[in-house]
Amino acid sequence: MYAVMFLWVIFYDFIEANVPYVNYWDELATCLVFCWGAWDFWKNPRMEKGERNNWLFLILLVLIGALGNVVHPGLQENPVVFIKDVMALCKFPVIFFLLECRKTAQEEQE
User: Fold this and answer.
1) How distant, in Å, are the alpha carbons of 10, 13, 31, 53, 56 from that of 16?
2) For labelling, which of 49, 67, 83, 110 has a CA lying 20 to 30 Å from the CA of 18?
């Protein structure tokens, strides 16, 4: 796995220049992990207090960021840009929260 990641880092510029839409790989990874986490949560719908707080704080952060468009509506009128900003903000926390809670659940099963 480390060899693949190393080669990805080395050849990323070449791949990005020659393969269309490869620069969206992190959004694809986020969506896949989110779908996997949603499926896993649907099968086992339990969430600890700390996990629930993490998700609530992330939602609160997105809502506070959205207030900028509510208070100053002329700053950004394109909704696609707003969605891209929310996705860029949430990518890392979503992956971290989902993988961390599944890691904890897996450790409890062992």
Assistant:
1) 11, 5, 20, 37, 35
2) 83
From the number of C-beta atoms within 10 Å of its C-beta (0-12, 13-18, 19+), residue 101 rates as buried
How many other CB atoms sit within 10 Å of the CB of residue 76? 13
CA distances from 7 to 4, 47, 58 (A): 5, 37, 33
Q: CB neighbours of 98 closer than 8 A, spacing ≥ 6? A: 33, 34, 36, 37
Whether the model pTM is above 0.90: no
Residues with Cβ within 8 Å of 71's Cβ and at least 6 positions away in sequence, in order, are: none
Distance CA(110)–CA(106), nearest Å, equals 7
Rounded to an integer, what distance in angstroms lies between the CA atom of residue 99 and that of residue 81?
27
| 79, 85 contact by CB (below 8 A) | no
